[in-house]
Design brief:
heterodimer, A: FAD/NAD(P)-binding domain, FAD/NAD(P)-binding domain, 2 domains, five-stranded parallel β-sheet, 25 strands
């Protein structure tokens, strides 16, 4: 059917479509944003190459459930065979540079990939220079588990091995960072793990800020489900971690120091390495983009999506990366045709689990305004504070369904 | 033969993602066009007028929802109708 459609399109579409059909796009990064974009570009008849170092993608959403022993790691892994089957050329190499003037991407082995337009979906890079004592070596003792994979399994193993009666410490960074409600979902599910498996243990959450996503919902759930087990310390109460000692599993705050049986440090972040190398990031470490086309404001002809961008009100989430991929591809196809960029409207939905069968959500609708993506007033918001258990259960169920759908759309 | 080819073309054309009306392509983050067993329903093949009516009720708060009441408020009636026509195709 697809081939028949292509043949018909080639036969019947007017002349400008032929120029577009021969256009080449290189996509760097095979996460939710990059995989969705590559697939959408190929479906639009564009010769698409996806550059992704890893042969398997490990998804972050639901990885907190893996950490808490509620979900197998295999459920997080996805491959690229379906993209290949749709005609995407998938190259498992690391991209080392983007030459926007010569319009080519350079790979680690020296391969050069020419493009008419490029799309970079680089995700995040953890900053191992931002928190004294926390470098890559320290992350092997105090896992961040903020990029899913070996780190996820390390934190899960540490929790499984710790003695009952120990203290788990989480250090949560200031904004902006990947997945705004993620640390609080993780705190909830670790608390659930401790409550059911190691009930004499405690969880201490040290936060570098005072307000966070879905805060009232999380705090109400913590008070109901994990009283005396989960202690949350905001910035104003000395929650900011200023230094860590990986050997001693000790963290220092403005007000004192704490030692943990398990310490999870989520460090500050910036756009992924290729964004820095390609000059797509500004001094903040993140990438400024046009909110309608997602074209870089620093490097013309190169589009950037996902966690790496400065997106205004839109959060750094898998849903957002997927939505931005769709909108960026529509813009790129139009630009390759010489047509105007379509108007943009984007959705986001983020589910969090506070316990098995207890889900909460935040949603938003966004449009370009004043050069960034702005909330549409009156739309969006969080689950109600007073919802019955049946609604929490439905949202937990929908969270799993969302994951199945978005991973199918990107990878299956 | 020519009529068949045109009919096929008309069927196939809206499948290209760039032709989605304002906001519609990002609905696919939850509403799968391919997962028939999904709890969040696929809207493909549904009646467009019914989908638009449901969205109106979500927007006005007269239809029970966990989340669609919050998202529906981000679209006007005309925008909703265009999305409904596209997502049910």
């Amino acid at each position: 059917m697809r081939i028949a459609r292509r043949a018909l399109a080639a036969l019947l579409l007017p002349a400008p479509a032929f120029a577009q059909a021969s256009a080449r796009v290189v996509v760097i990064g095979g996460g939710f944003g990059g995989a969705t974009a590559a697939r959408s570009l190929a479906r639009a008849g564009i010769a698409t190459t996806l550059v992704e170092a890893n042969p398997t993608y490990t998804a972050c959403p639901f990885s907190n459930a893996v950490i808490a022993g509620l979900r197998p790691m295999e459920a997080q892994r996805f491959g690229y065979d379906a993209l290949r089957a749709e005609g995407v050329s998938v190259v498992h190499q690391r991209a080392t540079g983007v030459d926007a003037t010569a319009k080519r991407v350079i790979l680690a082995d020296g391969t050069v990939l020419p493009f008419d337009r490029a799309l970079v979906s680089p995700g995040i890079e953890l900053r191992f220079d931002a928190l004294p004592g926390y470098d890559e070596a320290a992350s092997r003792a105090m896992p961040h588990a903020w990029q899913a994979g070996a780190q996820t399994e390390l934190l899960a193993a540490q929790l499984a091995a710790m003695p009952d009666g120990g203290t788990v410490i989480m250090a949560v960074p200031p904004n902006p960072y990947r997945c705004p409600p993620g640390p609080y979902e993780r705190a909830s599910l670790i608390a659930h793990f401790l409550k059911s498996r190691k009930p004499r243990s405690k969880l201490l959450v040290l936060d570098a800020k005072d307000v966070f996503s879905k805060q009232r919902l999380f705090e109400a759930a913590w008070a109901a489900l994990y009283p005396g087990l989960l202690e949350y310390v905001p910035l104003a109460m000395g929650g900011r971690v200023t230094e860590v000692d990986a050997k001693a599993r000790r963290v220092t705050t403005d007000f004192g120091s704490h030692e943990g049986a398990v310490v999870n440090v989520i460090p500050p972040q910036r756009a992924g390495a290729i964004a820095q190398a390609a000059g797509l990031a500004d001094r903040s470490g993140w990438c400024p983009v046009d909110p309608s086309s997602f074209e870089s404001r620093l490097v013309p002809g190169v589009h950037v999506i996902g966690d790496a961008i400065i997106a205004g009100a839109m959060p750094k989430s898998a849903f957002a990366a997927h939505a931005q991929a769709r909108v960026a591809v529509a813009a790129m196809v139009a630009m390759l045709r010489g047509a105007p960029v379509p108007a943009a409207r984007l959705l986001n939905t983020c589910y969090s689990l506070v316990a098995p069968g207890y889900g909460i959500s935040v949603a938003g609708v966004y449009r370009p305004a004043n050069g960034v993506l702005a909330d549409i007033p009156g739309a969006g918001g969080t689950s109600p504070l007073d919802a019955p258990a049946s609604v929490r259960e439905a949202e937990a169920h929908y969270a799993e369904d969302w994951f199945a759908t978005i991973t199918a759309d990107a990878f299956a | 033969m020519r009529a068949l080819a045109l009919a096929l073309l008309l069927m196939a054309a809206p499948a290209f993602s760039q032709e989605a009306p304002l906001g519609a392509s990002t609905c696919l983050g939850c509403h799968s066009p391919v997962r028939a067993d999904a709890a969040i329903p696929s809207l493909r093949g549904r009646d467009a007028a019914e989908v638009a009516a449901a969205m109106r009720e979500f927007r006005e708060g007269t239809r029970p929802a966990t989340l669609m009441d919050r998202l529906a408020k981000g679209f006007t009636e005309a925008e909703t109708q265009a999305i409904a026509a596209w997502i049910t195709r």
